[in-house]
Each structure stands twice: as structure tokens, then as C-alpha cells.
Write a structure and sequence with these properties.
Helices cover 33% and strands 21% of the residues. The chain is α/β, with parallel strands linked by helices. It holds the Pfam family Methyltransf_25.
């Protein structure tokens, strides 16, 4: 469907009728050949925007998928980088893409992002394109876990982009996708949570502040500006200003 190396329409249908975890296990070998994989120019723009805030020591890629975000994260962090995802298939692909020279400082953890097994372990947590897999009511638990995983002064960062306008075909494509997914989840179990328009920027910022973060928005200049002058791309940077917790070393997992 997305070219000769991408998944077929039949494969996508099977994945969509599975649970989120099983669906991504099935998609993993071909995930990098779909539009769902965060493009390199987005990853590089985030790394460039974060570089002046460093240096960082240990970093975590939340919902790392096949590990595309680990490359820029490794440039930003001097000691270790960890990827966490609940899909074993995604992590298998991610492990294979790590250069041998980088392997000693890379760790992989299979786990639920809403129940992170870390306390004060990282200076930097990043995430790329994962929030469509969380319902609004799950954000408090998600952000509380991220804050607990950060050391005092650590940052949680992720890119956000201006939504398409109602006059754009992309607006109706994304709205139609969300509608299909809601109908699917009303008729089929287990649910497959993947919505493009379920979470608004204001709601994300509000939940981050309620979780105890100090939040700022930084423009990503490489993506231009809208007609009203606002940036098309922004980086959300949430700083943990809470009291210190017991420091731990990110654990390695097979």
C-alpha cells in the first residue's frame, strides 16, 4: 500500500483488527516504510532545538517503536540512551538497527508507558508521534510517570504541529480516519486506540502543568509559519522542577 516494501492493504486490515500491541508486532518489519514513522527531518529539527538546553547525560525515548528517535537522542546524551515500548516486534527491529559501537550504551525496555519502571533516571525524555495511542483520561498517569522518571531539572520534550485547516483535504482525511477507528472500536474488541485528532495542544499543556511540569513552547523554524504568523511546528519542553528522588541506573532488558 505504501510502496513495494510497505505493508499491503490486507496486512493493514489484519493489524487494525488486532490489539494495539499485536498490531504493532505485526507491522514492525515494515513500519519504517509507512507514513507512521517519524521523518528524519522532524527528528533532526527536535535534536537541533534541544541541543542548546544540554548537555544531557541519560535519555529515554518514550514509545520508541523501531528506534528512529534513538539516533538524535544518542547525539544529545553523553552516557546512555534507553528506548521503551510495549511492542516486542518493534523492539526487535530497533535492536538490529543499533551500530555495534553504540550498543554498550543503549538499553531497551519492553513496558507500558503508563507504568514506567524508572525513578529519577533521566535528564531528558523525548517522544515522537505517540500521543494518539492514549485516551485523554490516561494523560495524568502518563505524565506523572514521565515526571517520576526525570531527575530534578530534567526535561520532557516532544514536537507538535499545527492541525490542518477544515478547507484542507488532510483535515477530512484525518477526521475520517478517527471516525473509522471509533466505529471499529465500538464494534470490535480488543480496541485499537489510534486517533489523530483526539488530543488538543491546550489539553496536553494543561495536563503537563497539573502533573507538576513547567512548560514552554519553542518554535521549530524549519517548518515555516501559517498565514496568521504562528509556527507550523513547535517543540513542547516540560521541565521537572520537583524535589529530587532516589537516582537509579536505567536497567537493561532483553
Amino acid at each position: 500500500m505504501f510502496g513495494p516494501e510497505g505493508p499491503t492493504l490486507r496486512e493493514l486490515a489484519v493489524q487494525a483488527l488486532s490489539s494495539v500491541e499485536r498490531g504493532y508486532d505485526l507491522l514492525a518489519p515494515k513500519f519504517d516504510h509507512t507514513p507512521f514513522r517519524t521523518p528524519d527531518h522532524v527528528l533532526d529539527a527536535v535534536a537541533e532545538a534541544l541541543a542548546p538546553l544540554g548537555p544531557f547525560t541519560d535519555g529515554l525515548d518514550l514509545c520508541c517503536g523501531t528506534g528512529a528517535g534513538m539516533r538524535p537522542l544518542a547525539r544529545l546524551c553523553r552516557h546512555s540512551v534507553t528506548g521503551v515500548d510495549f511492542s516486542a516486534g518493534m523492539l526487535d527491529v530497533a535492536r538490529r538497527r543499533v551500530p555495534p559501537a553504540e550498543a554498550p550504551r543503549v538499553a531497551w525496555v519492553r513496558g507500558d508507558a503508563r507504568a514506567l519502571p524508572f525513578t529519577a533516571a533521566f535528564d531528558l525524555v523525548v517522544s515522537f508521534g505517540a500521543f494518539g495511542h492514549f485516551l485523554p483520561g490516561e494523560l495524568p498517569r502518563l505524565f506523572a510517570g514521565v515526571r517520576a522518571a526525570l531527575r530534578p531539572g530534567g526535561r520532557f520534550a516532544f514536537p507538535v504541529f499545527a492541525p490542518p485547516r477544515p478547507t484542507s483535504p488532510a483535515f477530512w482525511l484525518l477526521s475520517g480516519f478517527d471516525t473509522v477507528m471509533r466505529v471499529r472500536n465500538a464494534l470490535w474488541r480488543p480496541p485499537f486506540v489510534m486517533y489523530y485528532r483526539a488530543l488538543r495542544l491546550g489539553a496536553l499543556l494543561g495536563e503537563l502543568e497539573r502533573a507538576g511540569f513547567t512548560v514552554e513552547l519553542r518554535a521549530l523554524p524549519g517548518f515555516g509559519r501559517r498565514a496568521d504568523g504562528s509556527p507550523r511546528g513547535r517543540l513542547v519542553v516540560a521541565r521537572n522542577d520537583g524535589p529530587p528522588g532516589p537516582a537509579v541506573t536505567p536497567r537493561r532488558a532483553g
